[in-house]
Write a structure and sequence with these properties.
The chain is mainly alpha-helical and 110 residues long. The longest helix has 32 residues.
């Protein structure tokens, strides 16, 4: 049937996304600090930096990371979304999604 990806595939994808998002967020913070110092701009407040970083992280996830991981798993992003809605009541799926959401919307000030 068409109901999106199977649960194990969904869980491994969500975990992989959370892992890569965490790596992206930390390296982005470093790159951004270098960029600001090179241009001698006033450093951003932690809140402003968090905003910029979460915007960049979202664009990167949607534009590159999600399509790439889906392709590796042999499913479409639409199938991933379908599977997520189908299984979002699953505690493991919910935990993985919350970890990802926390990274994107509430970046930790390092």
């Amino acid at each position: 049937g068409g109901g999106g990806a199977r649960l194990p595939v969904l869980i491994s994808l969500l975990n992989a996304l959370a892992l890569r998002a965490a790596e992206f967020a930390s390296s982005y913070a470093e790159r951004f600090a270098v960029l600001v110092s090179e241009h001698h701009a006033a450093p951003l407040s932690p809140a402003a930096l968090a905003n910029v970083r979460s915007g960049a992280l979202l664009r990167w996830l949607q534009g590159w990371c999600i399509p790439r991981l889906c392709c590796e798993q042999g499913i479409s992003p639409a199938a991933l979304h379908a599977a997520f809605y189908l299984h979002q009541g699953n505690p493991v799926v919910r935990a993985a999604a919350q970890a990802l959401r926390a990274l994107v919307f509430l970046p930790k000030a390092s």
